[in-house]
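Checklist before submission:
- one chain only
- standard amino acids only
- sequence pasted in full

Submission:
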Amino acid sequence: MASGPTWSARSPRRWLGRCCRHALVWGGVALAGAAAAQPTAVVRYGVYANEPKVFLDDAGQPAGIFPELLAAVAEREGWRLQPVPCEWQACLDGLAEGRIDLMPDVAYSPERAARFDFHQTPVLHSWSQVYVRRQAGAVDDIQSLRGLRIAVLSGSVQERALRQLLDGFGVAVQWVPVASFDEGLRAVASAQADAVAVNHLYGSRHANAAGLLATAVQFNPSALYFATGPGRHPDWLATLDRYLQAWKADPRSVYFQALERWGAPVATAPLARELWWALGAALLLLGLALAGAVWLRRQVGIQTRHLQASEARLNTILDSVEAAIFIKDPQMRYQYVNRKVAQLFGQPAEAILGKTDAEFFTGDSLPRIAADDRPVFDRGETVSAEENIQLLGEDRPRTFLTVKLPLRDPQGRIHALCGISTDLTEYRHIQAEIHQLAFYDPLTNLPNRRLLLDRLHQALATFERNGLDGALLFIDLDNFKTLNDTLGHDKGDLLLRQMAQRLKEQLREQDTLARLGGDEFVLMLTELHPDPLEAARRAEHVAHKVLLTLAQPYDLSGHTHTCTVSVGVALFSDAGGLVEDILKRADMAMYEAKAQGGNTVRFFNPLMQQHVEVRAALEADLREALAQGQFRLHYQPQVDDRGRVLGVEALLRWSHPQRGAVPPAQFIGVAEASGLILPIGQWILREACAQLLRWGGHPDTAAWRVAVNVSARQFRHPDFVADVLAALRDSGADPRRLELELTESQLLDDVDGVIAKMSVLCAHGVGFSLDDFGTGYSSLSYLKRLPLYKLKIDQSFVRELLTDANDAAIVRTIVTLARSLDLTVIAEGVETEPQRQALLGAGCREYQGYLFARPMAATELEAWAAAQPPAGAAAAT
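Returned file contents:
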């Protein structure tokens, strides 16, 4: 035995008593198995009013989850079902007396296990809840029930569990026995009672219609079964187990179909704080009892038999609870364990004493256990935590809610640790099942309507805060009913699962895909863009990807099937912050898509739809323009301070047969977004190089340079360098006469990659200029690293040069910077002679703008240049 106090007959009792007080807090309830019954061909089963689990419909026929599942078993087993309508207590009496063979919707309890037989696999997990009238005061906790008249089903689990719960808290109420849940709801609605306790499935289905609200008081989580009289029909119970186990393993089974048809939203709730008060009261009472026992022991200390009897009773208490209770010494060796610990470890208590956790838990679990043990010994803390730890020989971890507290000797020194652990593994599993059923579609495992609405509320709230627009895409299969009618519902379900998988592959992390039911899916896109038009464009892009993705053939168990969908789109900015409105508008847009023949996308907002259609038409015309050669290059001359033409800037022009001359500002953005800027940019490069070659053969134009604008998307393309070199090689143009204009925005990402591409082309003689300089966020630290030879002063600074001192200062700064970096500088947008003079005074000696010439075709430019006075004459004017 390690150093520390000697464990005498008195010592375990003293410290086990302290553990006992905590064990009563954390103890659970064990579930028991069931016996067997006598088979028969006719099954008389009880039917009472507990919708949606079991009830008689308007036609007087049994309905609900349990009758539907029992009917499915009976059909397969050849049983003949004979329903026996009855009130709840009469049903149980009939089952006990043999007038009823099988009773559905029976919650397991040790008391009932003594009267009836149960099968092994639960049909449902349920809990009970208290409901009150809407006009009643708030019922936030157990104490709020004090003095109320509470209606309970006579002889039910709810009655027994709620009585025990309220007695434990010392809350006195007036009980109102009723024969059915419906009678209980009516009693509250008619003010004959103040509250009613019913199971949550019945309450969520009927409380609202009765004018009742659910309270925060939830209790008695339980498993629900079919039950028979003791020893009467074991083969029926075994048959039910077999079907339930098979059905629960198949999400398409009649079991999940019944849950989806009859199930109501469920939720879990944390333990009410009143439970802690009640448990504290229980601990106080126990403490007083133990104090009395200590006083008596001191008075009759010589009566050892009394001490032994008292310790035996204490051990009985500790062994009767469903919590694992243990004591460890400072070396973390077990000094005491109760029956539950022995069961967990699979060894007798005597074999566990003196051993450490290393002999019972996996290596990965030991640091977690030690992390909770050390603060108890080192700092005297009481530690309460959930521990996910794994026992040796088990294939998965368990979850324990564990409280560890220090045990002190009379001098106040900590000599041991007392721990109380409750196994929450099954509870967490039930929570996960309830959450899955409440928030996810059982067929596709996608979020259901309830979870979608919750996320949509959050997304609209985020949109109101940050202004980033989003969109809702309502997706509906075209002619889905035909597939179900011809190939069967199993193929239809398989198609829906495959479609869900394809749609999930299109999601971003922040997006949500949900199935509303049937063949309807909803895709929520968030944070698309602050501009509604751009957000609409991006939503349309995703919608068309959805059309293409879902139109690919499906393999339905050897049958190839192709289908289309209709997509309706509504933007967040159209909904005014209302969830119902945006769902309705997306749905209306979807029906408009179907009215157009399906396999298409429609926006709810007519202006957005018009914008999308105009943009789509423009994109189609751009493709046609590229194929039909409708593009032309115009050139604007660049001159020096003497009026001599140094070069030109190549500018794209589009002459459409119907549109006429289309301004670049109208189509360049569409070309960028659609990716057409890549083939258009390649055409510009080839055409500019060909023109360079033609001018190179004439003495008057041989020295001209041609500047070509390069888009960000074109420059980032992996083949950009190869495309430029191919255009030069194929045309035979002099690379030293080609100048590529980049913008500052192109330099912000991957500076090293930009420099690498520029360096390769510079090595072949190609020059680079920085366009629109001063409008971006150029960093001098990397500007000096770039292989540039020219800066272009943006026309926005030139326009107000004579009237805005700031623009004048910026121009002088740019000129000074260019000189310091040994770069040429040119000003664009020069339209007046005073502007040119001011630029010349600032040190800028190269210009481009309407003062000299507008952009024109190559032949017009040549004629214009020939008509200019000799260099120097212009400068003298």
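Reviewer check: DSSP finds 32 helices and 32 strands in the chain.
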